[in-house]
Design a protein that fits this description.
This protein is mainly β. Helix content is 5%, strand content 57%. A hairpin with a 5-residue loop joins β18 and β19.
Length: 334
């Protein structure tokens, strides 16, 4: 569950991003023809799925010993639903990747896993992931370390833990996805997120923290930061979502808030222990949700800041108070 949770965290945030944009058409995500540069396509239960930048992304996290995780995701948006497919691989040496590198769901050293999510206006929701020792497979077909571009193929079966529904994903192809790198290895300083949740410390760093900046003509510039914390079987995750008309105008002291349109912020807090605890919560559009940029390095694409928000579980209406939040050295490169 641990390596997949980072991918699930990314997937849920991308679905939320897409739902914010659901009033606009999805012409850029219309299936057809061969995949173009920066695209992510598949067949989901026999139906075509297609996504492209900025709704197709790749994030690489590295550890100090050279291990890595690659999380790849694509989202399809329409006026009535948001749909996302995610693929992840885990390996021991990122710089040794070559065309032909294969990852499977039955390998511990070169692990592959997948996820699928659907959120429709009629209330239909699916959140599925591949299980351990699954038939998931991902093959790297091309990688350019200088341009930070990666291509490959994939397939997997994902199971919704709540309903048992099986989602079959085949003919998956990602082409020339631009990837960002974060973690304790590679070229970037250690990234971290910390906060207090109802007075209880939350902390995440290194491979379990990610960030990326997406630029789009529809919703402006979207900065996503996320991290997860492990306590035995209990996994806690937090994501910070920031929208700006133009991120290049953001500077130290810029404040994002839950009640503004041009600098909008909301936070999410989720927990899962494969048993009794399983919830997702997010902040409402209120002024109490704030995020302030405290450091910004546009050359190396590193950002730090402080945040706080109240997250509400829509199923139970329980409120989680997130206070004294700090994120440090988050790499957001495109």
């Amino acid at each position: 569950m641990k390596p997949r949770f980072l991918l699930t965290l990314l997937l849920s945030s991308i679905v939320l991003l897409s739902s914010c944009d659901s009033d606009d058409s999805d012409d850029s995500n219309t299936p057809g023809g061969q995949p173009e540069a920066g695209t992510f396509t598949a067949v989901v239960d026999g139906e075509s799925f297609s996504s492209s930048w900025p709704f197709a992304t790749a994030i690489v996290t590295e550890t100090s010993n050279g291990g890595f995780t690659i999380a790849l995701a694509g989202t399809r948006v329409s006026t009535s639903e948001s749909e996302a497919v995610t693929v992840g691989v885990v390996g021991s040496d990122f710089m040794s990747l070559t065309a032909g590198s294969v990852f499977t769901g039955q390998s511990s050293n070169t692990l592959a896993y997948g996820g699928y999510a659907l959120d429709q206006d009629d209330g239909t929701e699916i959140s599925a992931s591949s299980e351990d020792n699954s038939s998931a497979i991902c093959t790297i077909t091309a990688i350019d370390f200088d341009a930070k571009l990666i291509s490959g193929t994939f397939s997997f079966e994902a199971i919704d833990g709540s309903t048992g529904q099986v989602i079959t994903v085949t003919e998956g192809v990602f082409t020339n996805l631009n990837y960002t790198i974060s973690g304790t290895g590679g070229e970037n300083p250690v990234a971290s997120i910390s906060a207090e949740i109802d007075g209880t410390p939350f902390s995440s760093s290194g491979i379990f923290v990610f960030g990326f900046l997406s630029s789009t003509s529809i919703i402006g510039d979207y900065l996503l930061i996320g991290g997860s914390q492990y306590q035995g079987d209990l996994v806690k995750a937090m994501t910070l979502n920031m929208y700006a008309d133009d991120f290049s105008a953001v500077s130290v002291g810029t404040t994002y808030s839950g009640d503004t349109d041009d600098l909008f912020f909301f936070g999410q807090y989720n927990a899962d222990d494969d048993g009794n605890i399983d919830f997702e919560s997010r902040s409402d559009s209120v002024a109490s949700a704030t995020c302030v940029i405290t450091e910004l390095d546009p050359i190396n694409k590193l950002v730090s800041g402080e945040f706080s928000f109240d997250a509400i579980d829509e199923d139970t209406n329980e409120v989680y108070e997130v206070r004294n939040g700090v994120f440090t050295n988050i790499h957001y490169g495109q």
